[in-house]
Amino acid sequence: MRRIVLIVFLAALLLLIVGGTAAYTYVSGALKPVDPESEKVVEVDIPIGSNLDSIAEVLEKNGIIKNAKIFKYYAKFNNEGEFQAGKYGLTKAMTPDELIESLKTGKVYRTPVFTITIPEGLTLDQISKVVEKKTNHTAKQFMDLVQDKEFINRMIEMHPDILTDEILNEHIKFPLEGYLYPATYPVFEEDPSLESLVMMMLDSTDKAVSPYAEALAEQKHSVHWLMTFASLLEKEATAETDRKAIASVFYNRMEEGMPLQTDPTVAYAHGEHLSKTMYSDLEIDDAYNTYKNPGLPPGPIANAGMSSIEAVLDPVQSDYLYFLADKDGNNHFAKTYEEHLKNRDKYITNAK
Questions:
Q1: Which of 160, 208, 290, 304 could cysteine-pair with 260, CB 3.0–4.6 Å?
Q2: What is the C-alpha end-to-end distance of the chain, expressed in Å?
Q3: Banded pLDDT at 8 (limits 50, 70, 90)
């Protein structure tokens, strides 16, 4: 009887050890990255109001984790929670701890393969050259994509709050001009697709502009109006404080029915940089020429940073109708044409 009891005990102990080992192996395996070598970024959308259960299911569905239940228990065991909703660029190479950190901070907790910086005031053509230098894609391939009708329509569907039919106006040269937000972007793939890069920049524009949706609605203005106006400030201003003052000049001119007469729109109409705007340049018959056409141009002439966007929505209150920049890039403002001419003589003509 003792021998039987001993055998049963040893058998049960062996099963327990084997079962425990198998369970440990299974759990530890489930907590390892799905694919440690993967560099492909997967866009994962965590809706507002999501709890740990639903977040784990979304991650498993997108192939970011192996097992939703084990990830959930791991997070609970470590007292992790209060994850942020939003769109995440995640990879199958991320560990549970990296995923948890990303979901808590709203940022991707991984070292990028490289970064790509898009400065303020760049046109799509200039952005294409930045992309060409940093990736395996050519500037032409970039420009072909941002002019592709099917791609543009798909972007409108994905970003209805910022991209509307206004960008399809027949006078607009490039529908996505001004909508690729200036920022430094982390890239987690050796060879990212052009679509993923453009989508990343559009996502940033969406996030940057969305807080101002209510203010725009109150003023009965569209995002396209905002991005167009802001692009003019970005190209005209040389100092942070000048943006709000220049915005007031443009507001005052539009209220008076005066043309904006801003040189950067003339350069954009010509499709090239003009080191100096000549009188002959002002004669170009183009919808973007604000010397010939009243109000704002059909669309943005470059991308705009946050300071320019905020200047449009919160300009200084002034009676200025004119401004000019001296040889050092400092702007000088005037209420009357006579004052403007004095500034011209003082800061430009006599300064030569």
A1: 290
A2: 114
A3: low
3-class secondary-structure state, position 158:
helix
CA 245/CA 318 separation, integer angstroms: 8
> What is the pLDDT averaged over residues 213-220?
92
Q: Which domains does the chain have, with CATH numbers?
A: 36-108 (3.30.1490.480), 115-320 (no CATH)
Please report which helix (H) or strand (E) contains residue 44, including its range. strand 42-46
Q: What is the arithmetic mean of pLDDT over 45-54?
A: 83
H/E stretch holding 14 reads helix 2-30
Percent of the chain with pLDDT over 70: 88
156 pLDDT above the threshold of 60: yes
Q: Report, in this order, helix, strand and coil percent for the chain, each rounded to 5.
A: 50, 10, 40
Confidence of residue 12 (pLDDT cuts 50, 70, 90): low
Give the DSSP letter string of 182-216: -EEEEE-SSS--HHHHHHHHHHHHHHHHGGGHHHH
